[in-house]
Write a structure and sequence with these properties.
The chain has 3 helices and no strands. By secondary structure, the chain is an all-alpha fold. It has a domain of 44 residues. Helix 2 runs antiparallel to helix 3.
Length: 69
């Protein structure tokens, strides 16, 4: 996503070996970026509870960015 520094896997999927190459911060950043997009989709589709749940997960991902690897 723009401005996040998140880098998705090349083909849009993540294998176990690719995931193991990501640092804790990189994984959290990527997850947060994906959740931001999903939250927008849920809000646009008038799914407030789903948007709320995604927002909770987004906040957790953001908090994990600061966690030590």
């Amino acid at each position: 996503m723009a401005g996040t520094g998140a880098r998705p896997p090349q083909d849009g999927t993540t294998t176990a070996s690719e995931a193991s190459r990501l640092s804790h911060r990189e994984a959290a950043d990527y997850i947060a970026a994906m959740l931001e997009g999903l939250r927008h989709v849920a809000q646009s589709a008038q799914m407030p509870f789903l948007a709320y749940l995604i927002d909770v997960a987004l906040e957790e991902a953001k908090s994990q960015k600061g966690a030590v690897d």
